[in-house]
Design a protein that fits this description.
- It contains 17 helices and 9 strands.
- The chain has helices spanning about 10-15, 25-40, 45-60, 90-95, 100-110, 125-135, 150-155, 175-180, 185-200, 215-230, 255-265, 275-285, 320-325, 345-360, 360-375, 380-385, 410-425, and strands spanning about 65-70, 115, 140-145, 165-170, 200-210, 230-235, 300, 305, 310-315.
- The longest helix has 19 residues, at about 410-425.
- A hairpin with a 4-residue loop joins strand 8 (about 305) and strand 9 (about 310-315).
- The structure holds iron/sulfur cluster (SF4).
Length: about 425
């Protein structure tokens, strides 16, 4: 960008960096340098995502994926009360995707980013091959791990801009250990983070917040993570649906907005988030988005899960079949589907925010403003809320996904997979 001085005042002022002709370049440059430090996502990754979104739009594609949720296995070395994956029968827990199945899914989908949740991906005996194959395909990988095995397995990997360890931590030590039902889990994860940071890996954290979360404690947790040197943090509210037996600890939309507004307003400028600033504003109630469940499609040992990471309304054998045969209008808060009524989770709504950023000038400017200028979100009400006592920070977790309303077709599909797994065992 260039600016021709229109008069002497302007010329003089430019050298001091004072706004006269509409733009303060010195200040902007400083902000941009600071913004680069504050952004939890490297520029090369942002550029890849931006060009991908633009190319999809130019091709006129109405529905395109941003992040593939690749679940190579459901096995885990934790048994968190809030997780539905580990409730599968033993033969399903023993099964896993081969590296070739993973690569095929990645190529069918075409998304520039791949998140590898689970289960615990570090338990997969071929995780090294899977990660190397994805890096060779220039995919930005978020390997989601509870980090219990991170120190032990870290020699399998080499630092790369394409590989990020996304460590699951649900808050400060006591809260996290309670959440994952494992005393000492926080300390082991922190050791893993330190080792990975020391070796030059990209490391982020991912945190799910439920009703009863203590906003002041969550903010202290952010400080702790920044001190550990993580690149950025990711947040999401837990998923709830109206038939879950324990309704009192789920966050309805109003509660979600209140909680995130309390946590994320009056923000410490040192905090970095490895996610869309517009998604965080959505959680704080500053924006509304429709769900884009195809934005983060899920592939696992059953196939392509309909319609999203959380619900199981059947499976498709191919990604095109998923796009073509899912009744997308039946999902999202505005659809009237009760299972979507309270959902604000990242797998449904972060892609909406990213599309907003790279799909319109208004979205791009809002993102730039939030990243470079909008840092602290001053809010007196939120400050007062921080001082309020929190009634109950310990709650019961409701399993995600498995409990979230399976359809008959899902049950049939799983039964077929069970049969296949049993046959393989017999062979
Ligand atoms: S609103 Fe939530 S549960 Fe419903 S389709 Fe979207 S992500 Fe899935």
């Amino acid at each position: 960008m260039t600016c021709e001085p229109v008069n002497n005042d302007c010329r003089k002022s430019r050298s001091r960096g004072i706004l006269v002709c509409g733009y303060n370049f010195t200040l902007l440059a400083k902000k941009m340098r600071a913004g680069k430090e504050l952004m939890g996502v490297p520029i090369s990754q942002m550029w890849t995502v931006a060009t991908y979104v633009l190319s999809q739009r130019l091709k006129g594609r109405k529905r395109y994926p941003l992040v593939l949720m690749l679940e190579p296995l459901f096995r885990c070395n934790l048994a968190c009360a809030g997780c539905g994956k580990i409730q599968y029968p033993a033969h399903i827990l023993k099964s896993q995707l081969t590296p070739e199945q993973c690569f095929d899914a990645v190529e069918q989908c075409g998304a520039p980013m791949v998140s590898i949740p689970g289960g615990e991906p570090l338990l997969h005996p071929q995780i090294k091959e899977i990660v190397e194959g994805l890096i060779a395909r220039k995919k930005y990988i978020y390997l989601c791990t509870n980090a219990l095995l991170l120190k032990q397995k870290i020699d399998l990997f080499k630092p790369s801009k394409y590989l990020t360890f996304s460590v699951h931590l649900d808050g400060q030590k006591e809260h996290h250990d309670f959440s994952v039902c494992r005393e000492g889990g926080y300390d082991i994860a922190v050791e893993g983070i330190k080792e990975a940071v020391k070796r030059g890996f990209r490391v982020t954290t991912n945190t799910t917040l439920f009703d009863g979360a203590d906003p002041a404690s969550v903010r202290s947790f952010f400080d702790e993570m920044m001190q550990l040197g993580v690149e950025g943090m990711m947040l999401s509210p837990g998923y709830s649906y109206d038939k879950a037996p324990d309704q009192q600890h789920f966050l309805g939309r109003a509660k979600t907005r209140r909680l995130f507004s309390t946590i994320l307003s009056n923000r410490d400028k040192k905090w970095r988030f490895n996610q869309s600033p517009l998604f965080l504003e959505f959680l704080m109630g500053k924006r509304s988005y429709a769900c884009t469940p195809w934005g983060m499609p899920t592939y696992n040992v059953f196939g392509w899960q309909k319609p999203c990471y959380l619900l199981q309304d059947g499976y498709a054998d191919t990604f095109s079949e998923l796009l073509e045969t899912t009744s997308w209008d039946h999902y999202g808060a505005e659809s009237g589907n009760p299972r979507c009524a309270n959902c604000m989770v990242h797998s449904g709504y972060e892609a909406s925010a990213v599309n907003d950023t790279f799909g319109s000038l208004r979205g791009l400017l809002a993102t730039a403003r939030a990243t470079l200028f909008g840092g602290s979100y001053v809010n007196r009400e939120a400050l007062d809320a921080l001082r309020q006592p929190v009634e109950n920070t310990r709650h019961h977790f409701i399993p995600l996904s498995v409990s979230a309303g399976k359809t008959a077709s899902t049950e049939n599909h799983e039964a077929r997979s069970t049969q296949r797994a049993n046959d393989e065992v017999k062979v």
